[in-house]
Design a protein that fits this description.
By secondary structure, this protein is of the alpha/beta class. Strand 6, helix 3 and strand 7 form a beta-alpha-beta unit. The protein starts with 5 loop residues before the first strand and ends with a strand.
Length: 179
């Protein structure tokens, strides 16, 4: 018998000064048995950092035909395709053809990740931002994840300030592009 997903709840106090977004979010995130805590946190951060009307979390790594986070307009059309981790070039290509905008949030070493996509067919590749965090940031912060979490996310001048489990973490958000 397979082990089921673990449900995590996040109450997020979002203050994104860079975009002028201030919201209180309530998220229920299913953690697949093979998913790491840093990947769960990365999905939550991608959701918060991309927050806009129509945003939704998918089933995470269990979703085969959707990104980790997506945004749909009122007609149901996908307007933003947000991946986390190290998606393959085919997923980025598909997302770029389906949505107006694609972004990737990663906890991988960027110098190793970008060459994987180099030379691959990715629709509008130069328009896809790849966001990364300082080394160790997600691993350290993910250690504070519980089943129920109160999370404070503040962004100012591309610096992320995070409070989770009574602990404070921070990281610059670096933007990279595919060439």
């Amino acid at each position: 018998m397979a082990i089921g997903s673990v449900m995590h709840t996040f109450t997020v106090d979002l203050a994104d000064v860079d975009r002028g977004v201030y919201e209180q979010l309530s998220l229920r995130v299913a953690r697949h048995p093979s998913e790491t805590a840093p990947n769960v946190l990365l999905r939550v951060l991608a959701y918060a950092l991309e927050y806009e009307e129509g945003i939704a979390l998918s089933e995470g790594i269990a979703a085969t035909d959707e990104p980790a986070v997506l945004v749909r307009d009122l007609t149901g059309r996908t307007t933003a395709w947000i991946e986390v981790g190290a998606p393959d070039a085919a997923r980025l290509h598909t997302g770029s053809k389906l949505a107006d905008r694609v972004a990737v949030y990663t906890h991988r070493e960027i110098s190793r990740l970008l060459p994987i996509w180099a030379g691959k067919t990715i629709h509008r590749a130069a328009e896809i931002p790849i966001y990364s965090f300082e080394r160790g940031f997600l691993d350290d912060a993910a250690g504070a994840i519980e089943r129920r979490n109160a999370l404070s996310v503040s962004v100012t001048e591309r610096q992320l300030y995070l409070e989770l489990g009574g602990r404070a973490f921070s990281s610059a958000i670096s933007e990279h592009r595919l060439s």
